Amino acid sequence: QVQLVESGGGLVQTGGSLRLSCAASGSMFSRNAMAWYRQTPGKQRELVATITSGSSVNYVDSVKGRFTISRDNAKNTVYLQMNSLKPEDTAVYYCAAAIGPQWVFPGYWGQGTQVTVSS
């Protein structure tokens, strides 16, 4: 069983930055691919970024060049650095863990952290 706890959300102005953190329990963290999703009311949850156990990364087009996903296996933590934030980035951001080293689908979810970007 993996437990995920996000932190770092908040209110920021357009153009600002935030760094989200996701702390994972369990000794399997380094072997799991991880991801960040986001969701706004009335919309489906959107996959924002993924990182494999080998630290290969992928991003949705709308955040490329602005967001960076990274992981620190010694701290069992995955990060999402968000720069040049836009109002359309406003959402609840969720951390997710895969069952294995590649991202296929989420096996575990965090509780979410709110990010609000004011115009």
Please provide a written account of the structure.
The chain has strands spanning 4-7, 10-13, 18-24, 34-39, 46-51, 57-59, 67-72, 77-82, 91-97, 108-109, 113-118. It is an all-beta fold and 119 residues long. Strands 2, 4, 5, 6, 9, 10 and 11 form a 7-stranded mixed sheet that branches. It has a 4-stranded antiparallel sheet with strand order 1-3-8-7, with no helix packed on it. β5 and β6 (57-59) form a beta hairpin. It is globular, with a radius of gyration of 13 Å. The model has no long low-confidence stretch (mean pLDDT 95).
| Helix and strand sequence | EEEEEEEEEEE
Helicity level, as a percent range? under 10%
Unreliable parts: none
Can you count the helices?
Answer: 0
Instruction: Give the overall pLDDT as a whole number.
Output: 95
Shape: globular
**CA radius of gyration:** 13 Å
The largest sheet, given as strand count, sense and whether it forms a barrel, is: 7 strands, mixed
Instruction: Please give the number of β-strands.
Output: 11
What is the SS-derived class? mainly beta
Beta fraction of the residues?
over 45%
In whole angstroms, how far apart are the ends?
40 Å
